[in-house]
Amino acid sequence: MNIHSALPSRDKIFRNLLFVSSVIILLVCASMILSLVTDSISAFGEFGFFRFIFSSEWSYQEGNEHYGALPFIVGTLLTTTLALLFCIPFSLPVALFVGEYYKGRRITSFLSTITDLLAGIPSVIFGLWGFYVLRPIVVNLGLSEQGSGILTASFVLAIMIVPYAASLSAEFIKMVPAELKEAAYSMGATRGEVVRHVIFPYCGSGIFSAFILAIGRALGETMTVTMLIGNTNQIPLSITDTGNTMASIICNQFGEANGLRLSSLYAIALILFALTAVINIIGKILIKRAQIK
Amino acid sequence: MENPIIQTNTNILSIKDLCVAYTADHLSVSHVNVEIPRNQITAIMGPSGCGKSTLLRAINRMHELYRGIQVSGQMLLDGHDLMSMDPIKVRRQVGMVFQRPNPFPTMSIADNVMAGYMLNGLHPDKQQRNQIVERSLRSVGLWDEVKDSLTKKGTFLSGGQQQRLCIARALALQPQIILMDEPTSALDPIATSTIENLLTELQRDVTIIIVTHNMGQARRISQKSLFMYLGELVECGPTETLFSNPSHPHTASYLSGHIG
Ligand SMILES: Nc1ncnc2c1ncn2[C@@H]1O[C@H](COP(=O)(O)OP(=O)(O)OP(=O)(O)O)[C@@H](O)[C@H]1O
Ligand SMILES: [Mg+2]
Hints:
The complex is a heterodimer of chains A (293) and B (260).
Chain A: H1 3-47, H2 49-54, E1 58-61, E2 64-67, H3 70-101, H4 106-120, H5 123-140, H6 150-174, H7 178-185, H8 191-220, H9 223-228, H10 246-253, H11 259-292
Helix pairs in contact in A: 1-11, 3-6, 3-8, 3-10, 4-6, 5-6, 6-8, 7-8, 8-11, 10-11
Chain B: H1 4-7, E1 11-21, E2 29-37, E3 41-45, H2 52-59, E4 70-77, E5 80-81, H3 87-93, E6 94-97, H4 109-113, H5 115-119, H6 126-139, H7 143-146, H8 159-172, E7 177-181, H9 189-202, E8 207-211, H10 215-221, E9 224-229, E10 232-238, H11 239-244, H12 249-255
Parallel strand pairs in B: 3-8, 3-9, 6-7, 7-8
Antiparallel strand pairs in B: 1-2, 1-4, 4-5, 9-10
Helix pairs in contact in B: 6-8, 8-9
The structure holds adenosine-5'-triphosphate (ATP) and magnesium ion.
Residues 52-53, 181 of chain B line the site of magnesium ion.
């Protein structure tokens, strides 16, 4: 009977609820950034912004405190780059398999399910596997004495980002118009030639953006890296060295740190935040552009 | 070439009992027998869904790119069994032009013309390359229009120019036959008539098989016509005879606009 009057008011309450929830999320986000900034001020104030970034000293002896982010920035860039390099030879074939060679076949949905599963595995499990399975192999191969280090962490990181790079790349590969592929086939091209000369040129920018987003994930990955990288605070001199990334140094020391050291960890967090934000935004823009084409 | 009997044969392609099935229970092309005369234009007509494209794509063995399509029968290309040849070699000799112009958007105009060579792993030197580009573009009347923008992307051209570029791309490999599936249906009347004139000239060098819905077009440019209906070839013969004196009732009613 009064359904007409009841509906609008319920609608209104619901709309207000949505609004409030969105505002709360925005506030939480803003307060997070705010605390990153305010809590890192004392570190940046003490050492100076650029000195902090380019200093490689990390010593917390009382009375002789020196903190610099360079080892961790280098560690992060090194693990991420290596992870990307290791990830390409796995994710590109998977993407081609799913998006072109076996497109629409049952085996493809099986493979997609497996890679999705891979994406859902908690990172601590990757860490555990890396520590007890991969690390001894690295030792036995004589690559390093302790087994943990940049190389080990990067390799496991690579496996973790394969699903992201592969599934997005496959989407772009699927988007290549059949008429272009048929045009190439009709001139006597083989499948491999179509992949090289038609598919890759057409969706290269899309695949590139897929890898940028994968980098975005690798940059901030914490648990796996902390378990495998060896956790030392010097600049790694080779890929088999131990080290720390920005994420892993925070994870390692946040519980025991206070004062200037805590502020320095905040400063590193701020840099990491900015870096991942920039990479993700670039990736998203590139993906948009690639999709528009 | 070695066999003088084959060389003087007036039919370049002979199709015998050709059947194509997308699904096991239905023939989309059903027991087609036809001879395609050398250096002539042969038109394939018929109502939508009658199997024209399917027949055309059997000739350059495009169906093999997809799973589950059954092709049976025999085709002789200059006396050679086309079905047992390497499909890559077949497609180099039998080019194709599609309904919608499809130049490679990532390649320049010149690279589009050379795409067949590049895709086949052939790398002619610069001089040969320039010759092939000029010869192919001249033969489609595009040379004067694009000679100053050869390095621009082919997708900047108008629809009609793009389609001529696609014909040039197919011609560059000097095929014996070019298959065309409604090559002018996406074009305006002026671009269409340019291409019709072009095809009439091209038939000196190449055999053309063209699917068309445009009966006027078939009548203007083709010497031989095929009329298909529900997957079967119901009538074929000299275009003039087919138009002036169709022997099958389906042909007659299609040509007078009653079906299709
Ligand atoms: N990929 C496919 N899978 C299944 N059936 C198909 C496929 N392509 C075409 N067919 C069927 O085969 C028959 C012939 O199709 P075809 O495309 O050859 O017709 P057409 O004469 O070219 O028609 P149009 O004039 O509309 O282009 C149709 O019944 C169509 O539904
Ligand atoms: Mg068709």
